[in-house]
Amino acid sequence: MAQGWMAGTAVVAGGDGPREKLLLEGPQSLSDADLLAVFLGTGTVGRPVHDLARDLLGATGSLRSLLERNPRQLAALPGLGPARAARLVAAMEMARRCLAQSISRQDVMSNPAQTRQYLAARLRHLRYEVFACLFLDSQHRLIVFRELFRGTIDGASVYPREVVAECLLHNAAAVILAHNHPSGVAEPSAADRQITRRLVDALALVDIRVLDHVVVGEGSAVSFAERGLL
Predict the structure, then answer these.
(1) Which of 33-42, 85-94, 104-113 has the lowest mean pLDDT?
(2) What is the distance between the alpha carbons of residues 160 and 146, in angstroms, rounded to a whole number?
(3) Which end of the chain is more exposed for a tag (fewer CB within 10 A), N or C?
(4) How many other CB atoms are there within 10 angstroms of residue 3's CB atom?
(5) Number of domains forming the structure of the chain
(6) Same domain membership, residue 49 and residue 11
(7) Is residue 44 part of a domain?
(8) What CATH number is given to the structural domain containing 163?
(9) Residue 106 resides in a domain
(10) Residue 104 falls within a domain, yes or no?
């Protein structure tokens, strides 16, 4: 018996599949196809699991593109079906909740990169614009994340009065604003700057600080605070 990457993890001698490699060398040693094969567990009739994993990645373009599909789209892919699609969606949601729990235990401003990562995980895959908030306590720890407004691919209408009401509902002392650009370009628009200023002014009237506004694009997220735009 060989010892795996975690103490006490045993790997069957002679095993050369992705699962054995994961246990022996750790998950970082696996390719995207290997990881997907481990998740799927088995292939289909006449189609080994690793071939199925490669075919799914080829059909969708990338692991990220696969995982960002909705349950119905996933279920329609050959070799997945409703049960496997549900497991994939659940795995993604667990990852998002893990990120949320990580930032909820600390001052979110102490690790802005992790906060942007969480917001990207929540918003980047959406094909319509969403405006959301991270509501924070007086220690800048996460109370709750909420999507407040949804729009078309062109934008979402944001109403300062409703943002103020939500902040008061959650007894927030501070807030981080966030929205996505379905176009993929994270650069803040003139309209983004205008609504941010209106929200800063409206929330200041009830002593709630806007710590940041994060714009999520395809491959990046732009922070108003880091740009000096607040």
Answers:
(1) 104-113
(2) 15
(3) N
(4) 12
(5) 2
(6) yes
(7) yes
(8) 3.40.140.10
(9) no
(10) no
| pLDDT digits 0-9 by tens, 8-25 | 545 444 456 888 888 888
128 within 8 A of 153, measured Cβ to Cβ? yes
Q: Which domain holds residue 161?
A: 112-227
Q: How far apart are CA 223 and CA 63, in angstroms?
A: 26
Q: Tell me the C-alpha distance between 165 and 161, whole Å.
A: 6
Q: Which of 38, 70, 95 is the last residue of a domain?
A: 95
DSSP string, 88-105: HHHHHHHHHHHHHHHHHT
The total of other beta-carbon atoms located within 10 Å of residue 72's CB is: 9
- HSE toward the beta carbon, residue 61, CA cutoff 13 A: 5
Q: Are residues 130 and 185 in the same domain?
A: yes
Whether residue 67 is found in the same domain as residue 126: no
Residues 6+ apart with CB under 8 A from 198: 160
pLDDT tens per residue, range 93-121:
888 777 777 776 667 777 788 888 889 88
CA 138, 111, 226, 156 torsion: positive or negative? Answer: negative
> Quick check: 27 and 35 in contact, CB under 8 A?
yes
What lies within 8 Å, CB to CB, of 125 at 6+ separation is 68
